[in-house]
Amino acid sequence: MPLNILGTALLEGTDKIPYYEEIKRTLPWLVGTAAIKYWSRGPSNTWERQLHGKVYLVTGATSQGMGTSVAFEMAKLGAQLIFLNRNVDEWATDWVEDLREQTGNELLYMEQCDIADLYEVRQFATKWLNNSPPRRLDGVIVMSGDMEPIGIPHFSKPVRQSSIDGLEKQMAVNFVGVFHLLDLLQPSIKAQPPDRDVRIIISTCWTQVMGDIKIEDPLWQSQNYKSALKFFSSSKLQLGLTMMELQRRLTADVKKVSKEKQDTERSGLNIKVVMVQPGTMRSNSLRRIVSNGSVFLLLVLYCIVLYPFLWLFTKSGNRGAQNILYALNTPEFEEVNLKDTNTKYVSDCSVVKFARKEFEDIDLQKQLFDNTRRDILELEKKMAIIRNAKKKKDDKTKDEKKKGEK
């Protein structure tokens, strides 16, 4: 058909082509739209390796977006996946069962662990570490996140949502819980043999460039809630900075233990921390931002008015997942190919530099790491006292009720 049209145009002129004028007016718009969409979708991951026998902890897998796409691809490659989920209910159980059937991988499991609950995070980490010999762990894939409505200027103010520990929810989910989990899992990560390629992959967001750093109040417990976006971007920024320090500590500790045991000295480069910026996606977070948490605005503004533009300029969850899969599969992060011990930053399926100057400030990163760990421990002690007091009160109420029944 195209050859017939081209032949007609060359031999008889364009006037003989049906609807030529309409095609001439429409074609530039179609080509332009296709070009924009091709650019906005981002590059694809071209690396793949077999993951049979490898064990990964995964958060954010049930998002039905990027997390689910990553989980599906990893399961197809044969990985054993332990999904950390806020609730292990009937829906979550069915989700895992469906994924097993779709991928033919039976080594998929769901564990209860609300990343925003410091007590649940410690319970899970303790259970994971309480094993001898140490359990195999080839990596941790962190894709969980929370982004609250930012409020509509002059119409509504952002409403502060709190975690069970009283922290601002975005700070708890995006930063504090993730930090706590990886910090507690350090013994398991360092215990992996030197020939095991261990990758800690954490999704972040480009909005981190707008964040602030509170060295003396890293959990933002005493900060006024004036902007939801400020808390979100700051949580991502502080997470990235502390992960830079985590990489240094993991590498240094592996070298130190190796030297003390007078074993073959290990470089520690088999453990790699990677921050991944997947791009702007049509995710749950974006829907919440656009709709400001309103079902009416979600249906009208997001689904009808803005969706054509969002489809054109943003990624699907599957396209965002390409960056996580790249960080997981690329040989660039294998020990033999690494030239330094720094945390890596991936965007558009390639390694790029961090934008903020704080990512070069080692002293700041160390202090932020130490202060975050300090404040988490203090908050855990405070919440333990509250839990114990509540338990005693509940037990007393039960005893009084039993006496009354007698």
Rg, rounded, reads 25 Å
Any guess at the CATH architecture of the largest domain?
3-Layer(aba) Sandwich
Name the CATH superfamily classification of the largest domain. Answer: NAD(P)-binding Rossmann-like Domain
Look up the CATH topology of the largest domain: Rossmann fold
Number of helices: 12
Helix content: 40-55%
Mean pLDDT: 89
Structural class: alpha/beta
Indicate the CATH class of the largest domain: Alpha Beta
**Secondary-structure element order, as H and E?**
HHEHEHEHEHHEHEHHHEEH
Distance between the termini: 91 Å
SSE topology:
Layout (H helix, E strand, L loop, with lengths): L1 H11 L7 H21 L14 E5 L6 H11 L3 E6 L4 H14 L4 E5 L5 H12 L9 E4 L26 H16 L1 H5 L7 E6 L24 H33 L10 E7 L6 H8 L3 H19 L3 H13 L14 E4 L2 E3 L9 H44 L1
Parallel strand pairs: 1-2, 1-4, 2-3, 4-5, 5-6, 6-7
Antiparallel strand pairs: 7-8
Describe what you observe in this structure.
- This protein is of the alpha/beta class.
- It folds into two domains: 2-40, no CATH class; 55-279 and 315-381, Rossmann fold (3-Layer(aba) Sandwich), CATH 3.40.50.
- Helix content is 51%, strand content 10%.
- The protein has helices spanning 2-12, 20-40, 66-76, 90-103, 118-129, 169-184, 186-190, 228-260, 284-291, 295-313, 317-329, 362-405; strands at residues 55-59, 80-85, 108-112, 139-142, 198-203, 271-277, 344-347, 350-352.
- It has an eight-stranded mixed beta sheet with strand order 3-2-1-4-5-6-7-8, sandwiched between helices.
- Helix 4 (90-103) links the parallel strand 2 and strand 3.
- Helix 3 crosses helix 4, helix 6 runs parallel beside helix 8 and helix 9 crosses helix 10.
- The longest helix is centred in the last third of the chain and has 44 residues, at 362-405.
- The radius of gyration is 25 Å and the shape is globular.
- The N and C termini lie far apart (91 Å).
- The mean pLDDT is 89.
